[in-house]
């Protein structure tokens, strides 16, 4: 049987069965058979040898006709298959495109869900950094009351901030190495729990020695939390949202400067300083619960040896720039732990302290934001020159008002805003210079800058504690002198931290006669 589709074969058979002979096809009645020879006809000569009779030819030709019909059928089938093939390909192509569209839609839904979940986690991390920043700065809001309760001088009580800063600066790179393999969620929750327990211990401290020990413990928790919070925030969101996520996390620290200290001052006035530290402990515990509930499980990372982290200090540019971080923060922030005694030296009373401290925080936020935009336009050197000039002028005006005994509240308010703005105006520019000095070690140099920043806080607070018993005016004058010395140091090191220009391409190679357009 020829290779014909079964349906077509049955159809052909049915058509053949339905064909009936017509009247003209029927043999006439009494007609001789077709092959009959008449009686009177002469016998026909036999065909020549080697030839066939018509009947034999017909019989021999029948298989050929059948083969031809079968060939036609096969050709028709081949045409049908060829015609159907593009249609099948189109169907497969449409199916593939549909699957791709469904896959893209699925990935988009997943990305959207991950992005929303990631931003929620970033908000919890910002709450954690707000708690860390409040813990670091809140002592400034109730320093006199704490010193009286623990029977120590205000300058001695202020050294609790010095101990916190020294511990943070020293342990931050060490903890980053030791805790690298710890899963991130467990690490962040553990750090906040340590911070909560440390603040609870500070609130219950029976004497100054216990208070100092709990401040060291609090610094351990802060040093473990803050750097990892930024790294985790960048991993929770899509690449296009990483800058926003980091800004939100760092914004927690900035808001702590603006709100944490004033709120601590208000809490001390409404209750006492121990209750204020107890509230900070509650805030840390709430942040820990939030991180545990919202944060996804993230693995640790391979540890970077401490020697490799410190290897960046062998770079001449990094080593030249970092001392400016220490000196600048020591000049601007060193007296902030003693802000209440400084305000009282300018005639502010207890009812005015909270909102004056708030103005300092507002200035810090505005200075940080303004500096970031100016660095992109004018470069870090000019921005730092303006910042150190403004800091020197502000502290000099503070000292002059203190020496002259000027007690004018509007002036004090303006100086507080300027003090906060000039102090934190330098930080973004300093970070840009360090990144330019070691662009392939960005994370390491930013960590070193954070350690140097807390080193500057420790140095400035220690210096303020030594000078404050002599007089607030003298302490402010010395800090103004340190700020002034930052200017010539900036000029001497200005060639460090410049952006690295890309090597010339073929279009702008020497001797080519062509230059690239900026």
Walk me through the structure:
- The radius of gyration is 44 Å and the shape is globular.
- With 518 residues, it is mainly alpha-helical.
- The chain has helices at 6-18, 54-137, 143-150, 154-178, 184-203, 208-236, 242-270, 273-294, 306-310, 316-333, 339-345, 350-378, 380-404, 409-424, 427-437, 442-467, 472-492.
- Helix content is 75%, strand content 0%.
- The chain has 17 helices and no strands.
Write down the overall mean pLDDT.
Answer: 76
Strand content bin: under 5%
Secondary structure: helix percent:
over 70%
Number of strands: 0
Number of helices: 17
SSE pattern, N- to C-terminal: HHHHHHHHHHHHHHHHH
Structural class: mainly alpha
Please outline the major beta sheet: none
Unreliable residue runs = 1-63, 84-116, 502-518
Distance between the termini: 80 Å
Please give the radius of gyration in angstroms.
44 Å
Give short descriptive properties of this protein.
disordered C terminus; 518 residues; mainly alpha; globular; 17 helices; 75% helix
Record the SSE blueprint.
Elements: H1 6-18, H2 54-137, H3 143-150, H4 154-178, H5 184-203, H6 208-236, H7 242-270, H8 273-294, H9 306-310, H10 316-333, H11 339-345, H12 350-378, H13 380-404, H14 409-424, H15 427-437, H16 442-467, H17 472-492
């Amino acid at each position: 049987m020829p290779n014909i589709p079964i349906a077509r074969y049955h159809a052909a058979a049915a058509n053949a069965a339905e064909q009936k002979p017509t009247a003209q096809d029927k043999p006439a009645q009494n007609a001789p058979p077709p092959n009959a020879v008449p009686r009177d006809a002469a016998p026909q000569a036999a065909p020549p040898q080697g030839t066939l009779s018509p009947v034999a030819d017909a019989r021999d030709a029948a298989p050929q006709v059948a083969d031809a019909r079968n060939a036609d059928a096969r050709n028709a089938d081949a045409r049908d298959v060829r015609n159907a093939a593009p249609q099948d390909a189109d169907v497969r192509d449409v199916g593939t495109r549909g699957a791709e569209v469904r896959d893209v839609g699925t990935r988009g839904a997943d990305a959207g869900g991950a992005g929303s979940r990631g931003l929620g986690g970033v908000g919890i991390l910002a709450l954690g950094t707000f708690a860390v920043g409040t813990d670091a700065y809140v002592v400034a809001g109730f320093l006199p009351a704490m010193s009286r309760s623990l029977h120590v001088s205000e300058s001695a009580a202020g050294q609790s901030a010095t101990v916190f800063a020294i511990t943070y600066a020293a342990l931050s790179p060490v903890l980053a190495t030791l805790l690298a393999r710890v899963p991130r969620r467990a690490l962040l929750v553990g750090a906040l729990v340590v911070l909560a327990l440390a603040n609870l211990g500070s609130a219950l401290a029976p004497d100054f020695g216990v208070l100092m020990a709990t401040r060291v413990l609090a610094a351990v928790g802060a040093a473990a939390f803050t750097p990892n919070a930024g790294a985790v925030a960048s991993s929770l969101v899509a690449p296009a949202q990483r800058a926003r996520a980091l800004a939100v996390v760092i914004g927690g620290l900035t808001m702590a400067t603006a709100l944490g200290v004033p709120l601590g001052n208000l809490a001390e006035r409404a209750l006492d300083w121990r209750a204020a530290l107890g509230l900070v402990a509650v805030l840390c515990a709430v942040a820990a619960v939030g991180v545990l509930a919202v944060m996804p499980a993230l693995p640790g990372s391979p540890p970077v040896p401490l020697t490799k982290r410190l290897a960046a200090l062998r770079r001449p540019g990094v080593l030249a720039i970092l001392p400016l971080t220490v000196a600048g923060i020591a000049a601007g922030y060193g007296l902030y732990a003693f802000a209440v005694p400084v305000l009282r030296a300018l005639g502010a009373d207890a009812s005015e302290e909270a909102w004056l401290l708030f103005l300092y925080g507002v200035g810090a936020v505005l200075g940080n934001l303004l500096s970031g935009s100016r660095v992109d336009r004018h470069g870090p050197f000019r921005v730092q020159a303006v910042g150190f000039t403004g800091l020197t002028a502000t502290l000099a005006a503070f000292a002059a008002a203190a020496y002259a005994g000027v007690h004018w509240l509007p002036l004090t308010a303006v100086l507080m805003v300027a003090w906060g703005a000039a102090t934190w105006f330098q930080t973004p520019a300093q970070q840009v210079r360090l990144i330019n000095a070691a662009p392939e070690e960005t994370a390491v140099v930013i960590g070193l800058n954070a350690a140097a920043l807390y080193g500057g806080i420790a140095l400035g607070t220690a210096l303020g504690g030594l000078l404050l018993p002599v007089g607030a005016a003298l302490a402010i004058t010395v800090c103004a002198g340190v700020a002034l010395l930052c200017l010539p140091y900036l000029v001497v090191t200005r060639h460090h931290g410049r952006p690295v220009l890309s090597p010339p391409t073929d279009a702008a190679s020497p001797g080519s006669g062509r230059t690239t357009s900026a």
